Backbone:
């Protein structure tokens, strides 16, 4: 059986993904190291946040500590996102749930540069929201979360890099409805078969 031949532009896109992983990992808040996009290996990410993020005013600070695999290659494998949620507000948070949201594929350098200054929309909900280890957080308290979904549920269709948001929803003490209380944006490259 012969191996499929990648289109001529695929090599440029693979190097674009390497560049994106480096830029996102080294230049974005909260990220410190990344794996090679061709290995699909597990990556542990640091919690440091040197510059402000779009959710700095949210009551919950969300930090991703693990993405595995960092560059998925097969729709049948599991994709894991783990991290922490810290209540940095002055009111308790309750009924907490965590879910993933995905944005449209980014395929050009200009799209990636724009995403760095203007975070892309993440309108596609992925899977079912799950509770973190503790569903109620007092001010200053931290809990952990661990999401696992099949890569196929991410609906990564076109080659490129996809924005992926970890969104935390819950109730702020004194409010009557569930709403977004925090989130963090990361990126997932999609180049199956090493295209």
Residues:
């Amino acid at each position: 059986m012969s191996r499929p031949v990648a289109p001529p532009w695929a090599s440029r896109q693979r190097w674009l993904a390497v560049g994106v992983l480096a830029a996102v990992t080294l230049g974005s808040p909260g990220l410190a190291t990344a794996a090679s996009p061709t290995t699909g290996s597990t990556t542990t990410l640091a919690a440091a946040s040197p510059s402000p993020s779009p959710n700095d005013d949210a009551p919950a600070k969300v930090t991703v500590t693990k993405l595995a695999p960092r560059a998925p290659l097969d729709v049948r494998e599991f994709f894991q996102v783990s991290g922490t949620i810290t209540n940095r507000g002055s009111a308790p948070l309750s009924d907490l749930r965590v879910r993933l949201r995905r944005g449209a594929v980014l395929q050009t350098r200009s799209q990636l540069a724009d995403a760095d200054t203007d975070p892309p929309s993440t309108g596609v909900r992925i899977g079912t929201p799950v509770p973190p280890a503790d569903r109620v957080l007092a001010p200053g308290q931290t809990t952990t979360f661990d999401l696992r979904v099949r890569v196929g549920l991410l609906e990564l269709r076109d080659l490129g890099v996809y924005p992926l948001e970890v969104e935390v929803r819950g109730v702020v003490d004194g409010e009557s409805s569930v709403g977004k209380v925090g989130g963090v944006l990361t990126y997932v490259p999609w180049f199956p078969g090493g295209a």
Observations:
- Helices lie at 10-27, 109-117.
